[in-house]
Each structure stands twice: as C-alpha cells, then as structure tokens.
Amino acid sequence: MPFVNMRRFLILLFILLIAGILPMKADNITVDGASRSYIVYAPKNLGENRPLFIFCHGAGQDANYMLNTQFRDSDKPERKISIEAVCDTAKFVMVFPNGINNQWDIGGNSDINFVKALIDKMATQYKIDRNRVYLGGFSMGGMFTYHAMNKIPDLIAAYVPVSGYPMGGATANANVRPLPIMHIHGTADNVCGFSGVQPALNVWIKHNGCPTTATVVDNYNGFNGAKLHTWAPGNDGVEVKLLELPNKGHWVCKEPQVYTGKEMWNFCKKYSLNKTTPNVRITSPTAGLSYTCFAPSGEAAFPSVSIRAEADDPNGTVAKVDFYDGNKLIATCEKKPYTATLENPISGKHTIKVVATDNDGETASATMEIALNAPMVQYVISQSFTEAGSIPAGWITNDGKEQRIGFSDGYTLGCRVLQFTGTRRSFNYGLYFRNVEGQTRAGNAKYGQAKSGTTLTLHPGKYTLKYRICNWNKPEFSPVDICIEKVSDGEAVATQTFTPNVNIGNTASNSFNAVVQQTFEFEITEKGEYALAFYTDDVEWGDCVIGQLILMVNEYAAVGIEDIKAEPQSASKNCIYDLSGRKEEEGTLTHGIKIMGGKKIFVK
C-alpha cells in the first residue's frame, strides 16, 4: 500500500476508534488501586438488557491471543469461524480480560474483584442484563472459572471451563446454589489431562443433585468421535455437561460442528439468575444410595426409603411438592416438612423425582437414583472402581489420620482409587488404602456400612469372596486381613489373612502383573447386614490395593439354627451331615452349619 494511502487508512481508523464505531475495543479499569486491561466486543445495534460473556485466557497468554488465535479461524477464513459472528447473531457483549502477569488468582479475590468491576462497567456502558452474565476460561482461565463458582455464584448465571480444572481437586461450598456447568475438553490434552475432568465435574454433579449416570450423545453434531455427556436434571433444573473432543489437545476447538464459541453460548443462553420458577432439592437420601440383598429366589427384601426435600419460591410461595417413584406418585405435601416414604421397594433401579409447584403454577424438579440389587449368583463390587481420585459409593476408608466416606472425590493423596497405566497390569483401577502410623486396625477399607450409602444383606448360606489384592509401596510385602463383619456390633464372623506377592512400586504407571485371584469361602448363619472389611498390617505405612472384588453365593441354608455346638467334637454317636449332604460320622467335626437329626446346628 502506498504511503499516502496507508496514512489515510490510519487516520480513518483513529477517527473510527474515537467515534466508537468499531465494536472491538481495548480498555482499562481500575480495580483495588491497579489498572486492569481488557478487550470488549459489542455488536452493532446491541440494544439494552442483553447478555454478557466474560472469558479468561490461559497462563502465559493474554486477551489478544485468546481472541485472535483461539476464537478466530484466520487460517481458514472460508469457514468464517469467529466469536464476533456468534455475538452478532445472538446480540451479546463479549469481554476478554487480562490477568496480572498473564496469570489468574485461583485462590484469592483479586481477579474475583476484577470480574465484579467488569460486570458493573458493562452494565453502565452497555446496559447489559445482570441476570444473564456468563463466565468461562481456557486452561488456567478454566481453573479460575471453577474458583469463581464458589466465590460469585450470585453474579454468574452459568459457567464454561475449557481445558482447565482445579489441579488440587474441585470443591463445592454447601451454601452455593445449584450451578449450570459445561466443561469442554480434548482427550489428547497433555497439559491438563482429560482424566482429571470427571473428578472435578463429579463434585458439582453431586452438589447439584444431578443423576450420577449421564446421557451420552455419540458423534455429537456429526463430528466423528465427539461425545456430549449430560447429567440432568439437577436441583432447580440445572445441567452439568461435558463436551468430549476426540484427539484434541490443549487448545480451543474451532471445528465448525463443535466450535467452542458457539457451543458455550448455546449452553449458557438457557440460564438466567432472574428465576421465577421454584427452587427444589432432595436432601435425603444422599445420591448413590444402594442396597444389596443376597437371598433365595423371591425372598429378597429391602427397607423402606425415607425421602426429604426442600423447596421455596423466589417470587411467591410453594403450593405443593409431589414425590414420584418413576412415574408413580407416592406422596403430595402442601406444607413443610416435605417428606415421603418409598414403602416396600422392589429390586431394580428407582428414579426418585420431586416436583415443586408454586402459587403461579410454575414447576421445578429434582431427581436421584436408588439401586436395589438382588443378585442371583454374584455381585461385582469392584465395578465401581472406575474413577481415579475417588472413594466409591459404599466404601469407607481410614488411614489412622483421616476417614473418607464414599462417594467423594478430588483426592490426589491418601486413600483413593488409583488408575493404572503400565503396559502390563493385572487391573486398570484399584482402591488403595493405608495405615499411616501403624496403629492396630487403623488402616482399613470397608464396604457395606450404612453411612456410606450402601447396605449389604446376607441370608444364611455358603459364600465365596473372590479378590485380587497387592501392595502399593511395600517391596517386602505386607499381609492383609479380610473379614466378614456384622454391622450391628462389628463382630467378625469369618476372617482370612493373605500376604500379597506383588508390589506395584508407588507409581501408577509402573507395569505389574501376576496378581492371582484368591478365594475366601465363608458361611453366614443368620440373616443380617454385613460389611466386607480389609485391614492393612499394623505397621507404619502398611498398605493394600484392591483390584478385584466379587461376592458369590454358593447355596442358601434354611433360616433357623436349632442348636449351637461350642466346639468341633466327635460325631460317632449321631449322624451329622454338612449342607452338601456329606455324612460326618467319625472323627472331629469341621466348623460351620450342619444337619443333625433333621435339625440345623452350628458348630463354632
């Protein structure tokens, strides 16, 4: 371009900027005594009461890089991919703020105050709708987005973290309202690994009261391999979504079918802080409740389930709260407390739904699932070992310093599920627990205690527990006690000690194999609730990893022990049979349930 023409162009550009005609604008604002910069895009003919979207860059980046490199497809202009195009169509304001030293404060309030100041300024300058302010961020900006969920839930209607999550584990403050969240992440991300996404989301899935099982759309929007996971509805009707992008790395996706800018807007636009519908959430039982009952055919029975909900209405009153088991109405409450009971439930999965109706006829709902299992032959308890950094539902761990109750997650140290990635491995996931100081019975993991959300009922009979266990960081090998305990008093009715011969080596990427399946046969003489308990050796840093756990019933015995023998004794005077019909006439009796004279006895 000739110098004269270039000079005219620059003068015209300057005039347009001064006149405010160009919609893209760099600006500054003073926050806590410091000048903070940002870029704002406002479409032409914006109008008033339009939404605001604030999106934060990654560490080492800035607002200009975020806008021009991540949200525009300048390399392929024929695809016309840009965040401005999304803003122009939907008519909302977009702000890209700059972090101090290209970083974000993910533990304090300095950048929280920056976001607050931006909202105030956009309300003055563009008359944005404060009820429709959305926040997202890439990488460290995504970490900041999670931080803001606990800090300013009353200012942000929905959140979109992209390729970033709290590296130390996500948290959800109990007083925070249910939050709509959409997380977007590539499976080949080598900075914030994809494996860390689910633990972070699970914290909010649980907090929001969403179903623990997602609905999944494969090949989302025609993009091969893309998956859209949705956990919904949660309390107040919120959703948690995960857009899983196959083979995408640590960047913002600009493929036309799954363009990040469009996806995050399409999610957020459904949400507003200015609710008129009622609020409702299920407070009891907790998500993940399950009962497992081993019983002869037709004899499995489950306790009644008490359900409690809370409901209110932001602009009126709650007229009624309906409780459903699936589509079946089980109770209606017109005043507090809002409670119901699921009487004599049958086996299977039950979807509990609570619907609140306000005085204007508007409704909101909350749901949760309860699993009632009646295994015919076996139950694979370790099938819940699928999420690294978690304590699965039904489990309680202790290490002498800390007790962890499932379901809980976000753990990077201590008792937790580990995911193994070595090229040779006996299992993919395992529950690790330990004994920090070596105190007696201090290191343990137990399945089936009620406060973990799971109960295990066993009818009299013969059972087999199949397991694969090894040591985590005990090259000299450390024995483990496996116990079947009564929940009522903790009494062990059967015990087996096993010393592993495989040690993983304290690193989840190590190769290990030859963890042989072991069997533990035991008998139950009276119906009741039992726990499966594993105890480390009583030494400092004694440990164990459970990689497989299957409970099987071999045969059931009739209920009712007529006599109990204090100890094994000679059987020469009586014909005594075991439960398989084998006669024991001579010598010393073995322990267990026997038949003598047509009556069932138990030999201690």
Using brief descriptors, characterize the structure shown.
Immunoglobulin-like; 36 strands; 604 residues; Jelly Rolls; mainly beta; 12-stranded mixed beta sheet; Rossmann fold
Walk me through the structure.
This protein is mainly beta. Helices cover 14% and strands 37% of the residues. It is built from 7 helices and 36 strands. Strands 12, 14, 15, 17, 18, 20, 21, 24, 25, 27, 28 and 30 form a 12-stranded mixed sheet that branches. It is globular. Mean pLDDT is 88; it is low at 9-22 and 566-573.
What is the residue-averaged pLDDT? 88
Write down the Rg. Answer: 30 Å
Q: What overall form do the CA principal axes indicate?
A: globular
Give the biggest beta sheet: 12 strands, mixed
CATH architecture of the largest domain: 3-Layer(aba) Sandwich
- Report the CATH superfamily of the largest domain: Alpha/Beta hydrolase fold, catalytic domain
CATH topology heading of the largest domain? Rossmann fold
State the assembly state of the protein chains: single chain
What is the number of beta strands? 36
Look at the helices and sheets and give the structural class: mainly beta
> How far apart lie the N and C ends?
100 Å
Percentage beta strand: 35-45%
Low-confidence stretches: 9-22, 566-573
Q: Kindly provide the name of the CATH class of the largest domain.
A: Alpha Beta
Helix content: 10-25%
- Secondary structure tally, helices: 7
Number of domains: 4
